[in-house]
Amino acid sequence: MTKQNQNAAFRMDRRQSPPVGGGLHPAWIAFIRHCRDLNFGEISQLKIQDGVPVMAEETTKKVKFI
Questions:
Q1: What's the rounded Cα separation, in Å, for the pair 12 and 31?
Q2: Virtual CA dihedral for 45, 50, 51, 52, nearest 10 degrees?
Q3: pTM of the model
Q4: How far apart (Å, rounded) are the C-alpha atoms in residues 59 and 5?
Q5: Which among 4, 34, 49, 65 is least buried, having the fewest CB atoms inside 10 angstroms?
Q6: Residue ranges per domain, the chain?
Q7: pLDDT of amino acid 12
Q8: Which residue from 16, 15, 56 is spatially nearest to 32, judged by alpha carbons?
């Protein structure tokens, strides 16, 4: 197998979740909505699998008293 065929086989073998309607994957849309709803805060331990967000283990919300 040539190097070019190996690269093509590798690209075909990688699992990518297909986007819905040619746009963002629904997991990305859910993550963006979560960030928007959080407004201010911190997201730690973000897990990404196959190019899409899967889970944020801890979400902490900060409250500012100005």
A1: 27
A2: -60
A3: 0.57
A4: 44
A5: 65
A6: 23-66
A7: 42
A8: 56
